[in-house]
Design a protein that fits this description.
Number of strands: 17
Structural class: alpha/beta
CATH topology: Alkaline Phosphatase, subunit A
Strand content: 5-15%
Distance between the termini: 71 Å
CATH class: Alpha Beta
Helix content: 25-40%
Number of helices: 14
């Protein structure tokens, strides 16, 4: 008598609900997955999501972690230089502004105009662009610059979670995970959601980040983003151990899948299926990733277009090239994190390093997508988690200043994917402090992103702990039609 087998075969009340729940979950998931993955002969977009014609097939999100200063890059105010050093303490009290602990008790809040020159380089767009971003200025007619982004969060970690998961609370799925769950995959050899961590060259503060920003939360684990490393093998254990060839690895994996299937048949845990699928994906990535990440095969003129760091593994430039190669192969959501934008002090010096890292590669990515006919159906998003204050944190001089966190108004830009280029959306007041017209909350950005991919944000839901969760949460969110072509 095999007592262990008898024990496993016995169905307890908990196992009964677990197994049946898994079956219902699989049925629900099948209604959301594309036909090729769910076994249904449906079109590639689930019926409940078929109400919008998609304008974009893929997204690349260029995440500037630490919060770039909109006042030194895009939100130019012509009258600030003559008000240099003006104390804004009473103005802030009047506005009822939330301040961080870093400047709340600062005796004076001296107004700090940007020390950088601005021009309007566009032929169509009237956008002001800083001298720090000369290449971005060249493509301003392709960009939709949003000057009126805002958020509730005032510190980095909750702000990043709100920006990239739709909630300041832990445990929520990231944007890319929602898309992987709702739209399925276009490539069986690569993940649908890939994260790249680009190195930064500046000496500025580097905010710690966690995998929560690309995690699956309560969605099935297979929808989590796969982070590629910036040094060494992009994925750990890409190479088989000495003496293990592909045929032997295949045999080992088949045996492991057989054991996992038996475990799933006994307990019905859907995460067992997730592990099986991830083992299969890892096996295929052992063959696909080396070819994908070999940038030496790229045309030399293409690498030159992305700038001098294009040949440096892990740089922002090489990450942009890699992102384009991934999207060519069917990866639907690529997120590039670039840290070091948290300039509480020494901003004029440190922000130059950051802009040197990203300016030419961002321009090159747009040109590269355009020349390949991919920009029209690729949505490119650039921005941070909030903005920076118009007053200086700490001492102010003509040559040096810093800026604190500012969630009430900051700048992001979008391009491609059905977005209306050559425009500046929204306006801020004379201090660049408050929004005066056309506000865009971070949840509105999420709703608009989903809309461009053919998804009504109210219909992409997942039931967890008795609630129908969605990326945009329970607070009102709307598609910003003024951003769209």
């Amino acid at each position: 008598m095999n007592h262990l087998a008898d024990f496993n075969a016995a169905i307890s009340r908990r196992q009964f609900f677990r197994k049946n729940g898994a079956g219902l979950g699989a049925a629900s998931l099948a209604t959301l997955l594309p036909g090729s993955l769910s076994g249904l002969s449906n079109s590639s977009v689930p019926k409940q999501l078929q109400k919008i014609a998609p304008k974009a097939k893929r997204v690349v999100y260029l995440s500037m972690l630490g919060a770039p200063s909109q006042l030194d890059l895009f939100d130019y105010k012509t009258n600030l230089n003559e008000r240099f050093g003006e104390d804004l303490t009473e103005y802030l009290k009047k506005e009822g502004e939330r301040l961080t602990g870093m400047t709340a008790n600062q005796s004076k809040k001296p107004l700090a105009p940007s020390k950088f020159k601005f021009t309007q380089p566009g032929k169509v767009s009237n956008a002001w662009v800083s001298e720090l971003l000369p290449h971005t200025g060249k493509m301003v007619d392709d960009l939709c610059i949003i000057k009126t982004m805002h958020t509730e969060a005032i510190n980095h970690e909750p702000a990043n979670q709100l920006c990239y998961t739709g909630s300041q609370q832990n445990g929520k799925p990231s944007i890319g995970s929602w898309l992987a769950y709702g739209l399925g995959s276009q490539n069986k050899d690569l993940p649908n959601f890939v994260v790249l961590h680009a190195q930064h060259t500046g000496p500025g503060n580097v905010q710690a980040i966690s995998s929560r920003l690309w995690g699956a939360g309560f969605l099935p684990g297979k929808h989590a983003g796969v982070a590629f490393r910036s040094k060494g093998d992009p994925v750990l254990y890409r190479r088989d151990a000495p003496g293990i060839d592909r045929d032997l690895r295949r045999s080992m994996l088949d045996s492991l899948n057989t054991l996992n299937q038996k475990s799933y048949d006994l307990v019905g845990d859907p995460e067992i299926q997730t592990r099986m699928q991830q083992y299969e994906m890892s096996f295929r990535m052992q063959a696909s990733v080396p070819e994908l990440t070999d940038l030496s095969v790229e045309n030399e003129k293409i690498r030159e277009m992305y700038g001098p760091q294009a040949n440096t593994p892990g740089s922002f430039a090489s990450s942009c090239i890699l992102a384009r190669r991934m999207m060519e192969r069917g990866v639907q959501f690529v997120q590039i994190f670039h840290r070091g934008w948290d300039q509480h002090g020494n901003l004029p010096k440190d922000i130059k390093f950051q802009c040197d890292d990203i300016d030419q590669p961002c321009w090159a990515l747009i040109q590269d997508l355009k020349q390949r006919g991919m920009l029209d159906d690729t949505l490119v998003i650039w921005g941070g988690e909030f903005g920076r204050t118009v007053y200086s944190q700490g001492k102010l001089s003509k040559k040096n200043y810093g800026r604190d966190h500012h969630p009430r108004a900051f700048t992001m830009w979008m391009a491609g994917g059905g977005v209306k280029g050559g425009q500046v959306y929204g306006e801020t007041d004379e201090n660049g402090y408050n929004i005066t017209e056309n506000p865009v909350h971070i949840r509105d950005l999420h709703a608009t992103l989903l809309h461009q991919l053919g998804i009504d944000h109210n219909h992409l839901t997942f039931k967890y702990q008795g609630l129908d969760h969605k990326l945009t949460g329970v607070d009102p969110a709307k598609v910003i039609q003024g951003l769209l072509a």
